[in-house]
Amino acid sequence: NPGQLIVIAGRPGSGKSMFALQVADNIKANPENKVLYITLEMSLKETLNRLLKRKGAATSEEVRTMTFTDEKLEGDILPILKNLDCRQSLIILPYLFAIEGIKAKIREERPKVVIIDQLSLMTIKGSYKDTREKFNEIARELKRTAEKEGVAVILLHQANRKQTEDENYKIIRLEHLAEADGVGQNADVVITINQERENPETT
Predict the structure, then answer these.
(1) What is the mean pLDDT of residues 148-176?
(2) Average pLDDT, the chain
(3) Are 10 and 172 contacting, i.e. CB atoms less than 8 angstroms apart?
């Protein structure tokens, strides 16, 4: 909903980025819904490659080598790329790290949904005593922006790798958000992506 800050959290490699791409792809299915997808980890090419694989339009090898038959290119790939016209429903921006720049882009594009992948790579002006304080201020600023601009902001964040690996399989909780205990307090919704892990005593 407009004005909401939604956090998607998970362990490294748990599929947060792919899940976020699926969310973006589903939201933009309605032509009235413009999505601003800001990826801080992947290039534009890498993001598009993941989206092609997600839609089943290409195999991993085809995406890796970027080699397609004429039939597949015309029948599967080009329609998807045309649907990703950057001035239409899905705008993919790589490496926009500063929150000030993100806010400016939101004002310029007027999307309904903004997806940011991910919190740990974002920057913000000011001096902060530690990473926790910086992350919490970024979350507060994103929440204020969501309310002011009337957009929904989806923010991806990693769970603390050491803390979650020290335990046998448990559902990720708010305290597992790396250096960001206040992020959950600013969020309207926190979604955790959990993968069942093998119990070392049974292997």
Answers:
(1) 73
(2) 77
(3) yes
Tokens of 87: 């001035």
With CA atoms as reference, report the closest residue to 10 among 179, 173, 188, 198. 173
Burial class (CB in 10 A: 0-12, 13-18, 19+), 137: middle
| Long-range contacts (CB closer than 8 Å, 24 or more residues apart) made by 176-181 | 176/9, 177/7, 177/9, 178/120, 179/120, 179/130, 179/131, 179/132, 179/135, 180/119, 180/132, 180/135, 180/136, 180/139, 181/132, 181/136
Percent of the chain predicted with pLDDT > 90? 33
Cα 90 to Cα 134: distance, rounded to the nearest angstrom: 29
pTM of the model: 0.76
In the chain, the percentage of residues whose pLDDT exceeds 70 is: 63
**What does the DSSP assignment read for 140-158?**
HHHHHHHHHHT-EEEEEEE
**d(C-alpha 112, C-alpha 147), whole Å:** 12
